[in-house]
Design a protein that fits this description.
The structure holds three protein chains of three kinds.
Chain A (H helix, E strand, L loop, with lengths): L34 H15 L6 E5 L14 E4 L5 H11 L4 E7 H7 L1 H9 L5 E6 L34 H8 L3 E6 L3 H13 L4 E6 L3 H5 L6 H10 L1 E3 L16 E8 L5 H9 L6
Parallel strand pairs in A: 1-2, 1-3, 3-4, 4-6, 5-6, 7-8
Antiparallel strand pairs in A: 5-8
Chain B lengths: L16 E6 L9 H5 L5 E3 L11 E3 L10 H5 L5 E6 L1 H5 L1
Antiparallel strand pairs in B: 1-4, 2-3
Chain C lengths: L7 E6 H11 L2 E6 L6 H10 L6 E4 L3 H12 L4 E6 L1 H17 L3 E9 L5 E5 L4 H6 L8 E3 L4 H18 L2 E7 H5 L1 E6 L43 E3 L13 H16 L2 H4 L2 E4 L6 E5 L3 H14 L4 E6 L1 E3 L3 H8 L4 E6 L5 H9 L4 E6 L8 H11 L4
Parallel strand pairs in C: 2-3, 2-4, 4-5, 5-8, 7-8, 12-13, 12-15, 15-16
Antiparallel strand pairs in C: 1-9, 5-6, 7-14, 11-13
Helix pairs in contact in C: 1-2, 1-6, 3-4, 10-13, 11-12
The chains are: A alpha/beta, B alpha+beta, C alpha/beta.
């Protein structure tokens, strides 16, 4: 039985194959994991900019999402846990013409790397930070994260998480990010548009992508991957310009998606240039 | 009985037709493409791929409208669609 | 705008000399975080880097500081950070990343006294073993120890050259006295400063392998945007740079990291000596303690002892062969260092029982008085 009657003899090419290290596919992400979708969306967004690929670089930290940097066929850096943003800041400030994308997870960016995140946002470092938020530490087996909902089960909170999670859009906005959006992997088109916008604009852009972790979060919280996607479909409210204060993740009352913040503010590299290179032509 | 009228030019509007390509061995069988295909044209196949998953199969090839949703929801770069000329699609 | 090389005679501190050495060596990026007694390096870099079109970035902590210089290094820039004990501890994880990804960069540790916050404004040399082994795992790196402001200038240039040549982080293990002391520093004409730049790849981009060693064991290094589509990871990786979770890849990677240093020891290791030719008591010293050693040699000679000084300019990799060779013809070594025994243990190991090895150390906070060395000589060696 053939899966497609018109299947060509040779291995067909996926439209994103030119941006993927196909020799490293299949990737490590589990069946039903949404990181691949978020990653694919990011690649589509890069492609849609029409910019030469050598103007991009991707930096990631450690964790499941952070493995993304290893699959993109661009100059890419898989750094230490939590340190993607300062590594990326070094690249950006040394080569301001580059489009620097940080692709990492919630644990990496907001627990161990939280301090770097708020400072890069404060300075409006011209980075596109994509945070795949799967509500847990996936790679290490499902421990409680800074984003795990209250009372959710994890291997280190077997009776339920006693703590409150971060509201990431609010955190980003409060710290000074100039573009803040949230989508889910189900809202792939909006996500791709958001990443594309974020890449093309200047300033610290933050995009939170809600994504299922069926193996290490879903399994312990009675959520099959399709259930999680159904939640994304049924229990989300798209509201651009919404107040980030109302962006806490509570599927009971509905999770707000959309572009929360899109404002102009001079960036770290622009200001450095203005102050220190008054004679330069650009 | 339908409560809406059929547009007068309904016969003249060309619906885009697509053809789904599946790279079987990349599939991990999450089923997202099958679940969220707006035209419901995909289903799990009976066969196993190299990794032991059931990749999707196009059950109703003529009904793809080339919306690319399977392509963009797939976490594995394992499925995509290309536009086909309506004349070709009918054959 | 001042030029990169401020040719002439200056009366400056070791910290400032170190910063000037960096600028003269072609450093265009500094990521830092304030810490006594290394802050002046950051301050001077903040002032000077714009002169040469470079960028100074003060980060939110030392972890970010070293991360930023590693990122910037991959854009093709020569990069540096400077810190002291507590910050040096924070940098250890990314120091390992620099070693593993073979990223050239220079890290200055103006040592103060530890453990913990210790005596922030007072000298010490107790980070020497941390410099060698502070990050987890096996690795090789290079550490230089300047003994004066003038030495700070030259050793910083040398640190950049070695780091570019061998694609390895190079540590400058200064100390509070060297860093804060003002002395005459002579900066030569730019033409007299020899600079080394990292090997760049040539040949076909589609066949390029990021970690395929060149003739001296060092792989050529492209920059971001050169079109090589490099992947750089701290995971164990193969020659393509791709993660490879195998014992073979681990062996191959570590062999490359070790061999590029181990096979070029003659080029990397430098030492200085004073009255060493006929000596049978060898004072081994580095950094500010060299001054203690120099004074002690002269005083011991005046008493009739045949003392000499061996100054370790390169501390890591350790001059094992040299110590072993000297051990065969002398009575003993006295290592003078402001700690309770670190390099001393290396000297003892390399002497291998062929010669005695003694330590004149101190818990930190001040330079060791030459009298302490004399006491040791008189106690341990027969009066001539």
């Amino acid at each position: 039985m053939t899966t497609n009657p018109k299947k060509p003899a040779r291995q067909p090419e996926h439209p994103l194959d030119d941006l993927i290290r196909t020799d490293r596919i299949p990737h490590i992400w589990c069946p039903g994991c949404g990181i691949g979708t978020a990653f694919s969306s990011c690649l589509s967004a890069i492609k849609a900019t029409g910019l030469p690929y050598n103007r991009f670089t991707m930096v990631s930290g450690i964790g499941c999402s952070a493995r993304g940097a290893g699959y993109i066929k661009l100059d890419s850096f898989h750094t230490t846990h939590g340190r993607a943003i300062p590594f990326a800041s070094g690249i950006k400030m040394a080569r301001p013409d580059l489009k620097v994308i940080v692709f990492s997870g919630d644990g990496d960016l907001f627990a161990i790397g939280g301090n770097h995140f708020i400072h890069a946002a404060r300075r409006n470092m011209d980075l596109t930070v994509i945070c795949v938020n799967n509500l847990t530490y996936g790679m290490t087996g499902g421990q409680v994260a800074a984003t795990t909902p209250n009372m959710a089960k994890s291997t280190t909170t077997p009776l339920g998480n006693p703590d409150a999670p971060f509201n990431l859009p609010l955190l980003a906005y409060a710290a000074g990010a100039t573009y803040v959006a949230r989508w889910t992997i189900l809202h792939t088109r909006d996500l791709t548009t958001a990443i594309n916008e974020a890449i093309l604009r200047k300033g610290f852009s933050f995009i939170e992508v809600l994504s299922p972790c069926p193996v290490n979060y879903g399994r312990r919280n009675k959520e099959k991957p399709i259930d999680t996607l159904r939640l994304y479909q049924d229990r989300t409210i798209i509201k651009n310009g919404a107040d980030p204060v109302k962006a806490d993740i509570d599927f009971g009352k509905g999770v707000v998606l959309g572009t929360f913040i899109d404002i102009d503010r001079s960036t770290c590299d622009d200001r450095y240039c203005e102050i220190h290179r008054p004679c330069s032509d650009d | 009985m339908a409560f809406w009228r059929v547009p007068l030019d309904a016969q003249e509007i060309q619906i885009t037709r697509g053809e789904v390509h599946i790279i079987d061995d990349r599939c991990k069988g999450c089923g997202y493409c099958i679940e969220f295909c707006p035209k419901d044209i995909l289903q799990f196949s009976d066969r196993f791929n190299r990794k032991g998953y059931h990749p999707p199969v196009v059950a109703r090839p003529g009904e793809c409208v080339n919306c690319h949703y399977c392509e963009i929801i797939c976490p594995e770069f394992a499925i995509y669609s290309v536009e086909v000329h309506p004349a070709t699609a009918l054959k | 705008m001042k030029p990169a090389v401020l040719t002439g005679e200056h009366y400056i501190t070791g910290d400032v000399a170190c910063a000037e050495g960096a600028i003269a060596a072609g450093c265009t990026f500094f990521g830092g975080y304030p810490i006594t007694p290394a802050t002046e390096i950051a301050e001077h870099m903040a002032e000077r880097l714009p002169d040469v079109g470079g960028t100074f970035l003060q980060m939110e902590d030392e972890i970010a500081a070293i991360a930023s210089i590693l990122g910037a290094a991959w854009t093709g820039a020569k990069t540096m950070t400077a810190t002291s004990g507590p910050g040096f501890s924070l940098m250890m994880e990314n120091l390992g990343l620099a070693v593993c990804t073979e990223t050239p960069c220079v890290i200055v540790d103006v040592q103060r006294t530890g453990p913990s916050t210790g005596l922030p404004t007072m000298t010490g040399q107790a980070d020497m073993m941390q410099a060698r082994w502070g990050s987890h795992g096996d690795y090789e790196l290079i550490a230089l120890a300047p003994s004066s402001p003038q030495d700070c200038f030259y050793q910083t240039i040398r640190a950049f050259n070695l780091s570019e040549k061998y694609r390895v982080p190079v540590l400058i293990m200064a100390d509070e006295i060297v860093g804060h002391m003002s002395e005459k520093v002579v900066i030569p004409e730019p033409g007299r400063i020899k600079l080394v730049n990292r090997p760049k790849p040539t040949g076909r981009k589609d066949r390029f392998k990021l970690y395929e060693p060149g003739p001296n064991g060092v792989a050529p290094m492209p920059a971001i945007g050169d079109g090589y589509n490099i992947h750089v990871t701290g995971l164990t990786h193969d020659e393509r740079g791709y993660p490879s979770m195998t014992v073979e890849a681990q062996e191959q990677m570590l062999a490359r990291i070790k061999n590029k240093i181990r096979d070029n020891l003659d080029d990397i290791i430098t030492t200085e000596s004073y009255r060493l030719e006929d000596a049978d008591i060898v004072i081994v010293s580095y950094g500010i303690s060299v001054r203690t050693g120099l004074a002690a040699v002269d005083r011991a000679r005046a008493l009739g002892y045949r003392a000499g000084l061996l100054q370790l300019v390169t501390v890591w990799p350790f001059p094992e062969a040299l110590i072993r060779e000297i051990a065969g013809r002398v009575k003993g070594f006295i290592t003078v260092e402001i700690n309770l025994g670190q390099v001393h243990h290396e000297v003892e190991r390399c002497a291998g029982g062929l010669a005695a090895a003694h330590l004149v150390g101190h818990a930190g906070g001040r330079i060791i008085h030459p009298d302490k060395v004399l006491e040791c000589i008189e106690k341990e060696f027969a009066r001539p």
